[in-house]
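Why does residue order matter? Because the sequence determines the fold. Keep that principle in mind as you read this record.
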Amino acid sequence: MGIRWNHVGAIEFEGTFYQGFNNQPSFDGVPVGFTPSGVAIDVQIYYPKMTMAGLSFAIPTRLLTVKGEAAQFNSSDSRADEYALYVMQLERQAGEWFFVGGYAGEAITKRGTRAATFAPDRGLSQTFLGRAGYTIDTYRSVAVETAIRQNGDGAWVNAEFTQTIGQHFRLTWNVGLIRGEPGDFLGQYRKNSHAVMVVRYSF
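Structure:
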Protein backbone atom coordinates (compact mmCIF):
# COMPACT_ATOMS: atom_id res chain seq x y z
CA MET A 1 0.00 0.00 0.00
CA GLY A 2 1.10 3.56 -0.52
CA ILE A 3 -0.10 7.11 -0.03
CA ARG A 4 1.13 10.49 -1.27
CA TRP A 5 0.02 13.93 -0.10
CA ASN A 6 0.95 17.13 -1.93
CA HIS A 7 0.48 20.81 -1.05
CA VAL A 8 1.04 23.63 -3.56
CA GLY A 9 1.43 27.18 -2.32
CA ALA A 10 4.21 29.69 -1.73
CA ILE A 11 6.23 26.60 -0.76
CA GLU A 12 5.41 23.26 -2.35
CA PHE A 13 5.92 20.14 -0.24
CA GLU A 14 4.90 16.52 -0.34
CA GLY A 15 4.86 13.48 1.92
CA THR A 16 4.97 9.86 0.77
CA PHE A 17 4.54 6.53 2.52
CA TYR A 18 4.89 3.05 1.01
CA GLN A 19 4.75 -0.44 2.47
CA GLY A 20 5.32 -3.49 0.32
CA PHE A 21 8.22 -5.07 -1.55
CA ASN A 22 11.31 -3.41 -2.99
CA ASN A 23 11.04 -3.37 -6.79
CA GLN A 24 14.82 -3.80 -7.09
CA PRO A 25 16.17 -7.35 -6.69
CA SER A 26 18.60 -8.52 -4.03
CA PHE A 27 20.80 -11.60 -4.30
CA ASP A 28 21.64 -14.38 -1.89
CA GLY A 29 24.30 -17.05 -2.45
CA VAL A 30 23.73 -20.47 -0.88
CA PRO A 31 26.48 -23.14 -1.04
CA VAL A 32 25.00 -26.35 -2.48
CA GLY A 33 28.05 -28.62 -2.73
CA PHE A 34 31.53 -29.11 -4.06
CA THR A 35 32.80 -29.53 -7.62
CA PRO A 36 36.30 -30.25 -8.99
CA SER A 37 36.72 -26.49 -9.59
CA GLY A 38 35.51 -25.41 -6.15
CA VAL A 39 32.35 -24.69 -4.15
CA ALA A 40 29.06 -24.61 -6.09
CA ILE A 41 26.84 -21.70 -5.07
CA ASP A 42 23.17 -21.31 -5.91
CA VAL A 43 22.37 -17.61 -6.48
CA GLN A 44 18.82 -16.80 -5.43
CA ILE A 45 16.93 -13.60 -6.29
CA TYR A 46 14.51 -12.13 -3.77
CA TYR A 47 12.63 -8.86 -3.25
CA PRO A 48 12.79 -7.83 0.43
CA LYS A 49 9.82 -6.32 2.21
CA MET A 50 10.29 -2.65 2.95
CA THR A 51 8.68 0.43 4.43
CA MET A 52 9.50 3.83 2.96
CA ALA A 53 8.66 7.29 4.28
CA GLY A 54 9.68 10.34 2.25
CA LEU A 55 9.43 14.11 2.07
CA SER A 56 10.10 16.57 -0.77
CA PHE A 57 9.87 20.34 -1.11
CA ALA A 58 10.39 23.19 -3.57
CA ILE A 59 11.05 26.79 -2.48
CA PRO A 60 11.06 29.40 -5.25
CA THR A 61 13.08 32.57 -4.69
CA ARG A 62 13.83 35.58 -6.87
CA LEU A 63 17.11 34.13 -8.16
CA LEU A 64 16.55 30.38 -8.12
CA THR A 65 14.43 27.49 -6.87
CA VAL A 66 15.64 25.28 -4.02
CA LYS A 67 14.47 21.66 -4.21
CA GLY A 68 15.03 18.68 -1.98
CA GLU A 69 13.93 15.09 -1.47
CA ALA A 70 14.66 12.60 1.29
CA ALA A 71 13.40 9.10 2.09
CA GLN A 72 14.09 6.46 4.74
CA PHE A 73 13.95 2.79 3.68
CA ASN A 74 13.47 0.17 6.42
CA SER A 75 12.99 -3.58 6.06
CA SER A 76 11.81 -6.45 8.23
CA ASP A 77 14.15 -8.72 6.25
CA SER A 78 17.45 -8.95 8.15
CA ARG A 79 19.34 -9.61 4.89
CA ALA A 80 18.54 -6.13 3.53
CA ASP A 81 20.16 -2.79 4.36
CA GLU A 82 18.22 0.03 5.98
CA TYR A 83 19.21 3.41 4.59
CA ALA A 84 18.23 6.98 3.75
CA LEU A 85 18.56 8.65 0.35
CA TYR A 86 18.42 12.38 -0.24
CA VAL A 87 18.84 14.88 -3.08
CA MET A 88 19.41 18.64 -2.82
CA GLN A 89 19.45 20.86 -5.90
CA LEU A 90 19.33 24.43 -7.13
CA GLU A 91 17.43 25.33 -10.28
CA ARG A 92 17.45 28.54 -12.33
CA GLN A 93 15.77 29.68 -15.53
CA ALA A 94 17.48 32.68 -17.17
CA GLY A 95 16.03 33.64 -20.53
CA GLU A 96 16.57 30.70 -22.85
CA TRP A 97 19.00 29.05 -20.41
CA PHE A 98 18.07 26.42 -17.85
CA PHE A 99 20.48 25.32 -15.08
CA VAL A 100 20.18 22.58 -12.44
CA GLY A 101 22.89 21.54 -10.00
CA GLY A 102 22.71 19.27 -6.98
CA TYR A 103 24.00 16.42 -4.87
CA ALA A 104 22.59 12.96 -4.18
CA GLY A 105 23.60 11.33 -0.90
CA GLU A 106 23.07 8.15 1.10
CA ALA A 107 23.26 7.28 4.80
CA ILE A 108 23.19 3.59 5.80
CA THR A 109 21.42 3.24 9.14
CA LYS A 110 21.68 -0.57 9.42
CA ARG A 111 23.75 -3.07 7.49
CA GLY A 112 21.97 -6.21 6.34
CA THR A 113 23.48 -9.63 6.80
CA ARG A 114 23.61 -10.07 3.01
CA ALA A 115 23.66 -6.75 1.17
CA ALA A 116 24.24 -7.85 -2.45
CA THR A 117 21.70 -5.91 -4.49
CA PHE A 118 21.11 -4.10 -7.76
CA ALA A 119 19.84 -0.60 -6.94
CA PRO A 120 20.43 2.17 -9.49
CA ASP A 121 19.02 4.77 -7.08
CA ARG A 122 21.65 3.88 -4.49
CA GLY A 123 24.32 3.52 -7.18
CA LEU A 124 23.85 7.16 -8.13
CA SER A 125 24.18 8.39 -4.54
CA GLN A 126 27.28 10.26 -3.30
CA THR A 127 27.24 11.98 -6.68
CA PHE A 128 27.22 15.56 -7.95
CA LEU A 129 24.54 16.06 -10.60
CA GLY A 130 24.12 18.83 -13.13
CA ARG A 131 22.19 19.82 -16.23
CA ALA A 132 22.30 22.88 -18.48
CA GLY A 133 20.07 23.55 -21.47
CA TYR A 134 19.71 26.31 -24.03
CA THR A 135 16.86 26.91 -26.48
CA ILE A 136 18.49 28.33 -29.62
CA ASP A 137 15.21 29.07 -31.38
CA THR A 138 11.82 27.50 -32.01
CA TYR A 139 13.40 24.59 -33.86
CA ARG A 140 16.73 23.93 -32.11
CA SER A 141 17.96 23.27 -28.58
CA VAL A 142 21.06 21.91 -26.85
CA ALA A 143 21.56 20.31 -23.43
CA VAL A 144 24.38 18.85 -21.37
CA GLU A 145 23.94 16.72 -18.24
CA THR A 146 26.47 15.05 -16.01
CA ALA A 147 26.94 12.87 -12.93
CA ILE A 148 30.30 12.78 -11.14
CA ARG A 149 31.02 10.63 -8.11
CA GLN A 150 32.31 12.60 -5.12
CA ASN A 151 35.41 10.36 -4.90
CA GLY A 152 36.12 10.75 -8.62
CA ASP A 153 35.83 7.02 -9.32
CA GLY A 154 33.07 7.43 -11.92
CA ALA A 155 31.72 10.07 -14.29
CA TRP A 156 29.01 10.33 -16.96
CA VAL A 157 28.53 13.20 -19.40
CA ASN A 158 25.75 13.38 -21.98
CA ALA A 159 25.37 16.05 -24.69
CA GLU A 160 22.28 16.43 -26.87
CA PHE A 161 21.29 18.57 -29.86
CA THR A 162 17.71 18.62 -31.16
CA GLN A 163 16.55 19.94 -34.53
CA THR A 164 12.92 20.12 -35.68
CA ILE A 165 12.32 20.01 -39.44
CA GLY A 166 8.90 21.08 -40.66
CA GLN A 167 5.83 19.88 -38.80
CA HIS A 168 6.62 16.17 -38.64
CA PHE A 169 10.35 15.44 -38.28
CA ARG A 170 12.54 15.81 -35.21
CA LEU A 171 16.23 14.86 -35.23
CA THR A 172 18.21 14.29 -32.02
CA TRP A 173 21.97 13.77 -31.86
CA ASN A 174 23.16 12.33 -28.54
CA VAL A 175 26.72 11.64 -27.34
CA GLY A 176 27.36 9.90 -24.02
CA LEU A 177 30.77 9.47 -22.36
CA ILE A 178 31.25 7.17 -19.34
CA ARG A 179 34.51 6.75 -17.44
CA GLY A 180 35.54 5.35 -14.08
CA GLU A 181 36.89 2.49 -12.00
CA PRO A 182 35.55 -1.06 -12.56
CA GLY A 183 34.25 -1.26 -8.97
CA ASP A 184 32.23 1.96 -9.22
CA PHE A 185 28.55 1.95 -10.21
CA LEU A 186 29.17 4.39 -13.06
CA GLY A 187 32.65 3.08 -13.85
CA GLN A 188 31.42 -0.44 -14.55
CA TYR A 189 29.68 0.97 -17.66
CA ARG A 190 32.87 2.63 -18.95
CA LYS A 191 32.72 0.57 -22.17
CA ASN A 192 29.22 1.85 -22.94
CA SER A 193 30.13 5.32 -24.25
CA HIS A 194 28.04 5.94 -27.35
CA ALA A 195 26.80 8.26 -30.08
CA VAL A 196 23.19 8.04 -31.26
CA MET A 197 21.03 9.80 -33.82
CA VAL A 198 17.25 9.48 -33.45
CA VAL A 199 14.77 10.42 -36.19
CA ARG A 200 11.19 10.91 -34.98
CA TYR A 201 8.21 11.34 -37.26
CA SER A 202 4.97 12.66 -35.74
CA PHE A 203 1.66 12.26 -37.53
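Helices lie at 120-123.
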